[in-house]
Specification:
The complex is a heterodimer of chains A (299) and B (419).
Chain A: H1 3-29, H2 33-54, H3 59-82, H4 87-108, H5 117-122, E1 132-135, E2 138-142, H6 143-161, H7 163-171, H8 173-178, H9 183-205, H10 207-224, H11 228-253, H12 257-275, H13 281-298
Antiparallel strand pairs in A: 1-2
Chain B: H1 11-36, H2 42-61, H3 66-90, H4 95-119, H5 130-133, H6 141-160, H7 162-170, H8 172-177, H9 182-204, H10 209-221, H11 227-249, H12 257-275, H13 281-311, H14 320-325, H15 333-340, E1 344-347, E2 350-353, H16 355-381, H17 398-407
Antiparallel strand pairs in B: 1-2
Helix pairs in contact in B: 1-6, 1-9, 1-10, 1-11, 2-3, 2-4, 2-9, 2-10, 3-4, 3-9, 6-9, 9-10, 10-11, 10-12, 11-12, 13-15, 13-16, 16-17
The chains are: A mainly alpha (299), B mainly alpha (419).
């Protein structure tokens, strides 16, 4: 086994999962999971256009293109809502249209854009070890590791700095507004983090699976605890473990690494759903049985 | 210019076009109900969930058979529906996250299986990757015949259960009160939606299939308020989008059909959004401008009347200067329109009420003052349901208000009814 390759792939996957998991907790708590889904699809035309216009693959260009599309999506959903389209349908219409534009752009200019449809769907995490960052002739290791590392630090510090505000907004926006927190700004900060994480993770895990890395670990953690701090920690942990386990599963099956990571993550969720202490299906059934026997003993 | 791609005479193109129309038709029809049930995005989850079903069907049988794929996709979709309802029912996770979880995990599993299949000997030729973004060109005659049968069945089922589905969409509680099995009907509707998704997979692909359920239905909603018309219209829009997208995809060899069909549907939606009568943006804009003009005209007419009233002469000449000093009269556009309508006559350096204008202005001013009196005495008159935007006095207290108007000395003095 090649330790360098495996290590850098797992590390990238773990960083993606950790960055996405942290943001995902707030998406799940604020019931914005579907908006996250929509944004992650809709950034595709932004990325494709940025490639086409500048011919550059640099992260900054991608972030700009994708960020613009993220804002356009949020705006479109709101505009459609104001024009009388119900919210779920508005999300559906706008993200499918934008994603379709993106796919058409990628297929039309497949020769000119170093980006293919497979990459859009499930990323190219397998190539990370060889896509290295070289500055001044010094090889600094895989580039995506640096990108995802910066995004992880960004998410970590923003969430750390705005922890109290994000927490109040997540649980009680009305109270947040009452104590003088600018709820709209916090909302846009959160959406900004979602967009940045999506773009960063896009190359390694693709458009659709990055949503999985946002929602699934967060939902698993949500089942296991009632404390936000613990939830964040558990989500990151679940993401990292899924990334590592997914890598080995993919090696066994010779399949897409990012997809295997998602599958493992889903398995963890199923386990939590069934066996979580107190809230899991089994614990509930046992508690119900305990109640019944208790009643019978009383009679 | 090479127009040979337009030739529908070619048998293969005919099949492909027919298939695309059928899928648009059935998903448009069922999408209407999904939209009204606020379940638009469930179709997205079902479509993504179909991928592992298709892959497993291939892995288990080793053959590429549309019928088998459909069975696999249907089973996977059913499992996904059950998983979604189990998650929302037995845990504190809300609907949006449950949908996201099921969608992404099933899709992840599907991609994993798909990449495994592609590495198998012969797997690369399985054409399974066409299920991601759709390739209408890969449809053959037997596929289309199967699709036609399913689509016909779906439309027939909707026709037969139309009344029941209508109740389900608008007032399930009332339906249950009538003794209809609403839970069962909901399940049937979900199954029909699932089938509609499944027959679209090969042409549109799993990633964008949701748009075929949502977009034509939302577009149709703009044109009508009647469910029957909306359902039929959504079917027509879907079929048209299917045909247009397929024709466009024949232009380039590497173009996946799905995104083009979705873009065609989006085009229909945009046209509806702009041009639909009553609900469309243009119609709204026109209504808004008309209302604004009417308000301006009425304001101007009232202003001329009240200035004449101050002098005590209905034929008094009102100068633009006097008008400008009053609030609420903007520009001469409204005055010009009034003159053209015969309510005012323009004389050198001013405006004067005509006999017709006097009657009209008297009515307007009186209504306005009644409204003001009503606002003054609203507290005493008790809770009335009032049209505040139209500033109309409630009819129940009208006589009372007319007495109050005289009491306040606000009765318009120029021109009495019948005088």
């Amino acid at each position: 086994m090649d330790w360098y390759a495996s290590g850098s792939i797992i590390a990238t996957g773990a960083l993606v999962a950790a960055s996405a998991g942290m943001v995902g907790c707030f998406l799940v708590l604020r019931r914005l999971a579907l908006l996250g889904d929509a944004i992650s699809h809709a950034v595709l035309p932004g990325i494709a256009l940025a490639f086409l216009l500048t011919g550059s693959r640099s992260t900054l260009v991608m972030v700009l293109g994708a960020g613009a599309l993220g804002i356009i999506t949020t705006f479109l959903v709101q505009t459609l809502q104001r024009a009388g389209v119900q919210e779920d349908a508005g999300i559906g219409v706008s993200f499918t249209a934008l994603f379709a534009v993106g796919v058409v752009l990628v297929s039309l200019f497949a020769g000119k854009v170093d980006l293919d449809l497979d990459c859009v769907l499930y990323g190219e995490i397998a190539y990370t070890p060889w896509d290295t960052l070289v500055i001044g002739g010094i090889n600094l290791g895989p580039e995506s590791l640096w990108t995802m590392g910066s995004i992880f630090l960004l998410n970590f510090s923003v969430i750390g700095l705005l922890y109290k505000e994000l927490k109040i907004c997540a649980f009680d926006p009305a109270m947040a507004a009452a104590v003088g927190i600018n709820v709209a700004v916090i909302h846009y900060v959160l959406m900004g983090l979602v967009s940045v994480t999506t773009v960063g993770a896009f190359e390694s895990v693709g458009a659709i699976l990055v949503v999985a890395m946002m929602i699934v670990p967060a939902a698993t953690a949500y089942l296991l605890t009632e404390r936000l701090g613990v939830m964040l920690l558990l989500a990151v942990l679940q993401g990292v473990v899924s990334a590592a386990a997914g890598y080995f599963l993919a090696r066994q099956l010779d399949s897409s690494i990012a997809a295997a990571m998602t599958t493992v993550s889903g398995a963890f969720f199923a386990l939590a759903f069934l066996f979580a202490p107190r809230t899991g299906l089994v614990a509930r059934a046992l508690a119900l049985r305990g109640l019944r026997t208790g009643q019978q003993m009383m009679q | 210019m090479d127009l040979s791609w337009l030739s529908i005479a070619d048998a293969n193109t005919r099949w492909v076009l027919g298939g695309a129309c059928l899928l648009g038709l059935s998903s448009g029809v069922l999408g209407s109900f999904a939209l009204l049930r606020r379940r638009s995005l469930v179709g997205d989850a079902l479509a993504h969930a179909a991928l592992p079903g298709v892959c497993l069907a291939y892995l288990l049988t080793g053959t590429k058979n549309l019928g088998l794929f459909l069975v696999g996709a249907a089973i996977a979709g059913l499992l996904a529906t059950m998983a979604m309802s189990a998650i929302t029912r037995y845990s504190k996770i809300k609907e949006d996250a449950a949908l996201g979880i099921v969608l992404t995990v099933f899709f992840g599993l599907g991609i994993m299986l798909l990449t495994v299949i592609q590495k198998l000997p012969g797997g690369n030729q399985s054409g399974l990757d066409k299920f991601l973004f759709g390739q209408a060109a890969s449809l053959v005659g037997s596929d289309v015949r199967l699709m036609a049968a399913i689509a016909a069945g779906l439309c027939l089922a909707v026709l037969l259960l139309f009344k029941e589905f209508k109740l389900l969409a608008f007032d399930p509680g009332f339906g249950a009160g009538l003794g209809l099995p609403m839970g069962l009907l909901d399940l049937v509707l979900n199954l029909l939606i699932l089938l509609a998704v499944v027959i679209g997979l090969q042409s549109v692909g799993v990633v964008l299939m949701a748009a075929m359920l949502i977009t034509p239905a939302v577009a149709a909603r703009y044109w009508t308020d009647r469910l029957g018309v909306m359902t039929a219209l959504a079917g027509v829009f879907g079929a048209a989008a299917g045909a247009l997208g397929t024709l466009l995809s024949q232009l380039g060899p590497r173009m996946p059909t799905g995104p083009l069909i979705v873009l065609a549907a989006t085009l229909v939606f945009l046209v509806s959004l702009l041009c639909a009568p009553r609900r469309g943006l243009l119609a709204r804009l026109i209504r808004f401008v008309r209302l604004k003009r009417q308000v301006a005209r009425e304001g101007a007419l009232r202003a001329v009347y009240e200035l004449a009233e101050a002098v005590g002469d209905p034929r008094a000449l009102v100068t633009p200067d006097e008008l400008r000093r009053r609030r609420g009269v903007t520009g001469v556009g409204a005055l010009g329109a009034l003159a053209r309508g015969g309510a005012l006559e323009a004389t050198g350096g001013g405006w004067r009420l005509t006999a017709q204008g006097l009657a009209e202005a008297h009515r307007l001013v009186r209504e306005q003052r009644l409204w003001e009196v009503f606002l003054m005495h609203e507290g005493e008159l008790g809770g009335q349901s009032v049209d505040r935007d139209g500033a109309r006095v409630p009819p129940a207290v009208r006589t009372q208000l007319e007495q109050l108007l005289t009491l306040h000395g606000l009765e318009p003095r120029l021109y009495k009814e019948g005088a």
